[in-house]
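Much of what follows relies on a compact textual record of a protein's fold. With that in mind, consider the following protein and its fold in token form.
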Amino acid sequence: MQTDKTVYSIIGIGIGPFNLGLAALLEPVKEVSALFFDQTDAFDWHPGLMLNNTTLQDPFMGTDLVSMADPTSKYSFLNFLKQTGRLYRFFIRHEFYMLRREYNVYCKWVVEQLSNCKFSHKVVNTGYENGLYEITVQHTRTGETTVYFSERLVLGTGTQPYTPSFIDKDNLPDVVHTSEYLAYREDILKKGTLTIIGSGQSAAEVFYDLLPATREGFRLNWFTRSDRFFPMEHSKLTLELSSHNYIEYFYSLSAEQRGRILSTQNSLSKGINGSLIDQIYDAMYEMTVGGETIDVQLRANCELTEISPALREGYYTLQFTQVDQQQQFSHQAGFVVLATGYRYNRPACLEGISDRIRFNRNGSFNAQRNYTVDINEQEIFVQNAETQTHGFVAPDLSLGAYRNSWIINKITGREVYKLEEQIAFQDFGVQHLEKAVSVR
């Protein structure tokens, strides 16, 4: 075992878009020494859903790693386009939304320019002694172990594919998550039938990708528990709910109030791009011109309750409950893709410092307004693990540069990156001077 005797200002666990953006924004801040570790061999964002012509759901200015903090940064998406000879082509394309594949290439381009991002390095343990965090890191290829020391940590391990607990996916070989879709696409086509569970953007993309195959006899089924196949809400006043002004308001509410509000906001974070819904409908309309039929089934209000092997070899029986009618029915499926979203799982490597972390009663992180979860409220920062305290926008790429500005300003004790005080035109909640005096 080796020891790096350098005391770093901050060490990041995980290198997804959020910690990558933090690494890029920290690069010019010379008084901060930082290292970031990831156990994967290279940056690769959602490789299982890199479908042709799919885009991010927000404009490039927001999903860019750095521009909302520093539009002049050399790590901006526009500079990436300039340096790779694609800026004018992007302009002529006349489209605000980045291709998902190009976003991945852009992030890889940023990684190549940074010296503070270490891939193939797995954080296996953390400890705390003499005012410093002790991080044990193993190289995944050589097995070599090194201990690092840091004043602070930032957790950016992201969310993991979620499978409902009643589904024993390990024993159901033709039941996969959307995150694995491309790896199984050819097998699905050979099977000749697919049933999709869930109604978010990923489900819609898989449905649209396979819709042309129904001309060749492919059967496509799409079920969701939601009451409709609803669009992502992108109206301008609604988008102000992603501002820090709304985050401040949301954070000020009780845990019970926040939970109730989150349960009503699915259309703000889990909906389908309206343009994709239109494309799906228009494609089905065109395919049925002249009385043609397509082997497609779309059903909302259907809650999946069980998946089990069917009597027919290689098929499954899916049990549903029609939510409105409270009627049960079954469906035969040859292949199932679960568009059941993602959940945050606490990294096992944090066990050694769990006594220094603030948790909610349900076991989630109790994040403070400054995105810290440690008992001193200044040492352990989280990225995309604060939905319950900061709201639906926590996993949104457009929040990354803003949250990273907060973190950097907190670390340095100065305003390295300017945070606009007022973004929203609307007000949230009752202002202090407006509070009515109670009269008895």
